[in-house]
Amino acid sequence: MAVRERDPDTTDERLEITNTVHLKPLGIDVPSGATCELTFRGTRGSFIVSIERNGSRWTLEGSKAQAELTGAFTEDGMADKPTRVPGWIARVMEAKIDVAEVSVQR
């Protein structure tokens, strides 16, 4: 899945897409077969992404080529946000949504 549009500034089409992302082909150092579930909601100009992996979920909010990690959750509820965006999350966002900059919301 890739959410890429020819002219993101002129498209207001709201999308809701969920897809399984295989991590190893993205160059992420994980065992073969490792995946995450990525859900994109919104438009290229304003979106929310949810990424689920191994019982944890991360929420990111963004616009165009930038996003912020706004929440982290475990099966037990809300978790502390990491001080840095995990490298594999940044790689998934870049490869699948064309987001070049991902930071942690403070």
Which terms would index this structure?
mainly beta, 1 helix, 106 residues, 7-stranded mixed β-sheet
How would you sum up this structure, described in words?
This protein has 106 residues and is mainly beta. Helix content is 10%, strand content 46%. It contains 1 helix and 7 strands. Strands 1, 2, 3, 4, 5, 6 and 7 form a 7-stranded mixed sheet that branches. A hairpin with a 2-residue loop joins strand 2 and strand 3.
What's the gist of this structure?
The protein has 1 helix and 7 strands, in the order ββββββαβ. The protein is mainly β. Strands 1, 2, 3, 4, 5, 6 and 7 form a 7-stranded mixed sheet that branches.
- Overall SS class: mainly beta
Oligomer: single chain
How would you sum up the major sheet? Answer: 7 strands, mixed
Number of strands: 7
Low-confidence stretches: 1-8
What is the overall pLDDT average? 90
Instruction: Give the fraction of residues assigned to helices.
Output: 10-25%
Count of discrete alpha- or pi-helical segments spanning 4 or more residues: 1
Strand residues, percent: over 45%
Q: What is the string of helix and strand elements?
A: EEEEEEHE
Shape: globular
The termini sit apart by: 29 Å
Task: Output the radius of gyration.
Answer: 13 Å
Strand and helix layout:
Blueprint: E1 15-22, E2 35-43, E3 46-53, E4 56-63, E5 66-74, E6 77-79, H1 87-97, E7 101-104
Parallel strand pairs: 5-7
Antiparallel strand pairs: 1-2, 2-3, 3-4, 4-5, 5-6
